[in-house]
Specification:
The complex is a heterodimer of chains A (282) and B (271). With 282 residues, chain A is an all-alpha fold. In chain A, 73% of the residues lie in helices and 0% in strands. Chain A contains ten helices and no strands. Chain A has helices at 23-26, 38-61, 72-115, 119-134, 141-148, 152-175, 180-188, 193-230, 236-245, 249-277. Chain A starts with 22 loop residues before the first helix and ends in a 5-residue tail after the last helix. Chain B is α/β, with parallel strands linked by helices. In chain B, the strands form two sheets. Chain B has a six-stranded mixed sheet with strand order 6-7-8-3-9-10, with helices on both faces. Classes of the chains: A mainly alpha (282), B alpha/beta (271). At the A-B interface, helix 7 and helix 8 of A face strand 1, helix 1 and helix 2 of B.
Chain lengths: 282, 271
């Protein structure tokens, strides 16, 4: 014990709180202090109208056929008329995403928390984690379908495999952020290893955990849609292949629009969770 | 009020030696360092940076185990963190995700005890932080953060307070104010205080004794007693005695450094 003590080091003012990792710093929303005046709002709306209207106008002016690129108005119209048909598929995709993400994120978090406690084990496991992070889990979907059929199971497994490592690698970065002075503080009151984990390490890791959860959820969404495109008769990914094979491009883009909105909602959700629970870093 | 002349010292450091194992080899931070601190005495430890002051304090607190030698509190060997010892760390070391109240309750949470709200309220009032309980550390000035850290350290009514360069990051005026506050708190409820600092002025203002450590490896190079009555005033600090004392301590530190005993590169400034 005596020889293993680290030289006490103290963060110099300010940089103990690693602003580099906070979720809100990644945010496009936080780049400014928010919309301040009606003029700013008007400018934002005007640019949006110009861009979308410009596309609409150009597509109509050059008579671009709908099967190549439908105008925005047709996409929005398709979104409303087709939505009752698309909705059940949205439900299937959400089930796969939520179930796979819950499983993957839980395993990823637990593994990150455990592995960072044992630096030696971490070194051994690191290459495999890297392999899991870098391999597109979509590649395994045909195999999973062979083994588990065309139901939810292969898709949920694929989502879990995609989300888990992302959560783990980011959470591990968070758990590795040790502040020896804060741990010493807890130890000086006789804190147990478990108390140090829950009261010091976990809150310090929280901002990175949230980043991991967000990236994991986005990867999960990608993988769910990809897996649906490979096989099985349901899900938003299945709609994409179906509509494109029938050259129903407005409907196809309506599904793409739903997927974009899903991704943005995931982002906004974690942004506000971060703002509420990890804003001490900013 | 000058205590410290009792037969068993409150804190007794005997031949304390500490070696750190670093990537670049062993580092001897403390070498057979011995000193006593009497009950309710305020002792400052000064010395060139990297001389092992913080190592000495962390060993006294039981956070670090000595390589050899021993430290006794009331005659009992210290083997780990002790409930009777409170620590005020460099910078405030508050937990940024907790507000002030939650930071001050932290020790009680760890111990599973109910906080002594009356005592805490008294302390908060004493340091001028009443009504700030809901604020987060980032919303407070450096001086206020350090006041909160002092309240946290005193909340468990320790009989020994170890202070590790607590005001090093503060500006001179805030530092003077904090020094007066420490004196007030001490007059209010006498405690044994070991105070690590590199401000000689601060050491003289606060202490009954000033201990000068040699450059690394740290040993007690010299000891000065500071016999001025409390509360001490700014006028006392402007007397010739204080000036001579300051000069003598400075010569101890700088002179020894100039003799070439200190390594050219300080590996860890805070050790």
């Amino acid at each position: 014990m005596s020889g293993s003590d680290a030289i006490p080091e103290f963060h110099k003012t300010g940089h103990a709180d690693g602003q580099d990792v906070s979720l809100t710093n990644l945010s496009a929303f936080s780049s400014g202090p928010g919309i301040k005046s009606g003029r700013e709002l008007a400018a934002i709306v005007a640019v949006a109208v110009l861009v979308i209207g410009g596309i609409e106008l150009a597509l109509r002016l050059f008579n671009v056929p709908h099967y190549i690129m439908p105008p925005p108005s047709a996409i929005v119209a398709a979104l409303f008329t087709e939505f009752p048909l698309i909705m059940p598929h949205l439900g299937h995709t959400l089930v796969e995403l939520l179930a796979g993400f819950a499983i993957g994120a839980t395993i990823g978090l637990v593994m990150a928390a455990v592995i960072t406690q044992f630096p030696f084990a971490e070194k051994i496991v690191a290459p495999y984690i890297l392999l899991l992070v870098t391999t597109p889990m979509l590649a395994l979907v045909p195999l999973l379908i062979l083994r588990f059929g065309f139901g939810y199971t292969p898709r949920i497994i694929a989502v879990a495999l995609a989300a888990g490592p992302m959560v783990m690698i980011n959470a591990a970065t968070g758990f590795r952020r040790v502040d020896s002075a804060k741990i010493a503080l807890a130890r000086s009151y006789g804190a147990s290893t478990l108390q140090i984990f829950w009261k010091i390490r976990a809150p310090m890791a929280l901002p990175m955990i949230l980043v991991g959860l967000m990236i994991g959820a986005i990867f999960g969404l990608l993988t769910a849609v990809g897996a649906e495109m490979v096989g099985g008769g349901f899900g938003l990914g299945n709609r994409l292949t179906t509509y494109s094979s029938m050259i129903q491009m407005p409907q196809f883009f309506a599904v793409v629009l739903i997927l974009s909105i899903l991704g943005i909602l995931i982002y906004i959700f974690f942004f506000f969770v971060g703002k509420k629970w990890a804003s001490w870093e900013v | 009020m000058n205590a410290g002349d009792t037969s068993t010292p409150k804190l007794s450091v005997r031949e304390a030696t500490k070696v750190y194992l670093t990537a670049s080899g062993d580092l001897l931070a403390l070498d057979r360092c011995s000193l006593d601190v009497g009950a309710n005495e305020i002792v400052s430890v000064v010395g060139p940076s990297g001389c092992g002051k913080t190592t000495l304090l962390w060993s006294m607190s039981g956070l670090h185990e000595l390589t050899s030698g021993e430290i006794r509190l009331d005659g009992n060997k210290i083997t780990g963190p002790h409930p009777d010892i409170g620590i005020v760390f460099q910078e405030a070391n508050l937990l940024p995700w907790r507000n002030l109240d939650a930071n001050i309750n932290f020790p009680f949470e760890i111990k599973g005890e109910k906080p002594d709200q009356e005592w805490i309220a008294h302390l908060l009032e004493r340091v001028g932080l009443e009504g700030f309980g809901g604020k987060f550390p980032r919303e407070l000035s450096g001086g206020m953060q350090q006041r909160a850290a002092i309240v946290r350290a005193l909340s468990l009514k320790p009989s020994v307070l170890l202070m590790d360069e607590p005001f090093g990051a503060l500006d001179t005026f805030t530092r003077d104010e904090m020094n007066r506050l420490v004196e007030e708190i001490w007059l209010d409820r006498p405690t044994t205080i070991v105070f690590i600092t590199h401000s000689i002025e601060e050491a003289i203002f606060l202490s009954d004794r000033v201990i000068v450590l040699s450059p690394r490896p740290g040993r007690v190079a010299r000891e000065y007693s500071v016999p001025f009555p409390r509360p001490r005033s700014l006028e006392i600090m402007a007397t010739k005695e204080v000036f001579d004392l300051t000069h003598s301590i400075k010569t101890d530190i700088v002179g020894k450094r100039a003799s070439g005993a200190a390594p050219a590169r300080q590996i860890a400034e805070s050790v």
